[in-house]
Amino acid sequence: MFRPMMPYIWVPMQSLFDPDGGMEALGAGAVLLRGFAQAHDRALLAAIEAVTAKAPFRHMTTPGGFEMSVAMTNCGAAGWITDRRSYRYTADDPESGKPWPAMPKLFLKLADGAADAAGFPGFVPDACLINRYEPGTRLSPHQDRDEADYGHPIVSVSLGLPAAFQFGGPKRADPMKKVALGHGDVVVWGGPSRLAHHGVLTLKSGEHPMTGRRRFNLTLRKAL
Ligand code: MD3
Ligand code: FE
């Protein structure tokens, strides 16, 4: 008689140890989905390549006159920029004068899937800011306040080298917590966490098998 050597129903490892399927509340409305994007890492990196072939990474200048150490580009109907004038969203890439590259369908699916899992169904972003970090790069604490409606969440996707991410509350003086964000981690920031101050500490050197000495972060937003 046939008797299988092993149980033939595969149980995802995570469910044995983690009844919430990899979900971790960072604060009210802030949900960390560890590894949520990992299965799509190659496709995501290929999509970043395709976007940056049309809209290359660049170091933008803040209204205060400082060049950002993070290199940035965008895709979608709107793209976030900073220059000597202001922080704002634009329909066109100021470097080319042409519309930002289209939002890859995978970005839309991932954003909607993650937002849905975190309790924000029907999220349709129209802007994706793509950040590139190299060892020594940092992003000072700030709020994301250039979007029209803070009722929509922001979904962030980390790829490549890990980063020490810090986030606090709506006031600059609110205490900050630190969390490590690694390859494939996704965070959904909605509800009361939407206006939390947040930043990225100086990236440590390292080598990632898929991205080398780099970290990429996608922030998917409904800007308009
Ligand atoms: C919390 N990016 O692009 S992602 C940014 O890793 C930005 O590149 C960081 O902050 C990065 O604006 C952090 C995590 C994140 C993104 C948006 C948020 C956290 C957030 C918006 C509100 C609250
Ligand atoms: Fe931000």
List strands and helices in order, with pairings.
Layout lengths: L12 H5 L5 E5 L2 E4 L7 H14 L16 E6 L2 E4 L4 E4 L14 H13 L9 E7 L5 E4 L11 E7 L2 E5 L9 E5 L4 E4 L8 E3 L14 E7 L3
Antiparallel strand pairs: 1-2, 2-11, 3-6, 4-5, 6-13, 7-12, 8-11, 8-13, 9-10, 9-12
Bound molecules: N-(carboxycarbonyl)-S-(naphthalen-2-ylmethyl)-L-cysteine and fe (iii) ion (FE).
The site of N-(carboxycarbonyl)-S-(naphthalen-2-ylmethyl)-L-cysteine (MD3) has 17 residues, from strand 6, strand 8, strand 9, strand 11 and strand 12.
Brief descriptors of the model:
224 residues; 3 helices; globular; alpha+beta; binds fe (iii) ion
Describe this protein's structure:
It contains 3 helices and 13 strands; from the N terminus they run H-E-E-H-E-E-E-H-E-E-E-E-E-E-E-E. The chain starts with 12 loop residues before the first helix and ends with a strand. It has one domain: Alpha-ketoglutarate-dependent dioxygenase AlkB-like (Jelly Rolls), CATH 2.60.120. It has a 7-stranded antiparallel β-sheet, with helices on one face. The protein is α+β, with helices and mostly antiparallel strands and 224 residues long. Bound molecules: N-(carboxycarbonyl)-S-(naphthalen-2-ylmethyl)-L-cysteine and fe (iii) ion (FE).
